[in-house]
Design goal:
By secondary structure, this protein is mostly helical. It is built from twelve helices and no strands.
Amino acid sequence: MKFLSKGAIALLSLTVCTVAQANDVRAVAPALEKYTQDRLLGDVWKRPGLSPRDRSIVTLAALIARNQTVEMPYYVNLALDHGVKPAEISEIITHLAFYSGWGNAMSAVAVTKDVFAKRGIKADQLPSASPWLLALDEAAEADRAKRVADQFGAVSPGVVQYTTDVLFRDLWLRPDLAPRDRSLVTVSVLIASGQVAQIPYHLNRAMDNGFTREQAGEVLTHLAFYAGWPNVFSALPVAKEVFEKRPK
């Protein structure tokens, strides 16, 4: 008798869940099921401007930020199939505790725990709680910290302190999610949450970290389907201004 590997079992389970979900959607909104299969999965996910791995990261960021846990098991599995490492998914959730709130991150933990268990993902595949941090660009960070302190130090010194000590001198330097991918997660969650005021800084940072204009445009296209057209159209003028101000 042949036994299925853990990966094959996980894939079979994912396929069964996907078919069941498609049947549920068809029973309520046949047009939505058609758009999902034809446009979203059959078209958007195959566009060449963004890799399947990046699209998985963008999608997870949007789902976590919006606390949309129903579809999360499917997309966590899909992310793993697209090459996103368990350690990277762990770091995405940790990162988004700061950018979309602790409650949303904890909801994502509950869902991802079951996916990891079914795929046999153990603690030794996850990041250390206190790893050796990446090198810090001291000059750039000093400039950022000064600007924030000058603007808001008198309003909320606690926010200013934690932004420096926890976010930029700790979280952003954790090594199990590359700076480019942290930027991708952050830009995605800002767009998905309608937080346009923070987009210029983080989109510029993403492009400084190696993200291209074409890829940024594809993030917006992808998120139109996962965060809605209004959030994307609110972000479009901001992204346009960032592009125009950056050197060609």
